[in-house]
């Protein structure tokens, strides 16, 4: 699956459904973002069950502000509507694969319990 452009209009809909969504916050003027793009694209072709989204932080400044994106690229992982990872920096392919593996193995029931405990 190719990447999906995420906007303020479709972000909640795409990231709110069951399954894994990876989000790449990027900008065309950002050298590391441009160098990371082919890695992200290859991973999207390898993991067709995962939605790979891209947020152009120039065009979608409201989304960048909402998630306090101060450094790009920033990679965010959302599983079943819950943000489970967010970190700035371009990942080497092996680290991106490791992140995907870890997100796939998460016990979402346990994650929700931890979130509920943290929010009380």
From TrEMBL:
Disulfide links within the chain: 30-33
Residues carrying the site annotation Contributes to redox potential value: 31-32
UniProt keyword annotation of Endoplasmic reticulum present: no
Record's keyword terms, sorted: Disulfide bond, Electron transport, Redox-active center, Transport
Keyword Glycosyltransferase: no
Thioredoxin domain mapped to chain residues: 1-105
Cellular component per GO, a single term: cytosol
GO terms of molecular function: protein-disulfide reductase activity
Residues marked Deprotonates C-terminal active site Cys (site): 24
Record-annotated membrane-spanning stretches: none
Active site residues of this protein: 30, 33
Listed CDD domains: TRX_family
Similarity-based family: Belongs to the thioredoxin family.
Name the UniProt record assigns to this protein: Thioredoxin
């Amino acid at each position: 699956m190719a990447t999906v452009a995420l906007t303020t209009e479709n972000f909640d809909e795409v990231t709110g459904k069951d399954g894994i969504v990876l989000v790449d916050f990027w900008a065309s003027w950002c050298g590391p973002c441009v160098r990371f793009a082919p890695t992200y694209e290859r991973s999207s072709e390898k993991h067709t069950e995962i939605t790979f989204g891209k947020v152009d932080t120039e065009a979608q400044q409201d989304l960048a502000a909402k998630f306090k994106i101060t450094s790009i690229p920033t990679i965010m992982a959302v599983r079943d509507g819950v943000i489970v990872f967010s970190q700035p920096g371009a990942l080497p392919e092996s680290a991106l694969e490791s992140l995907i593996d870890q997100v796939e193995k998460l016990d979402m029931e346990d994650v929700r319990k931890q979130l509920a405990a943290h929010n009380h």
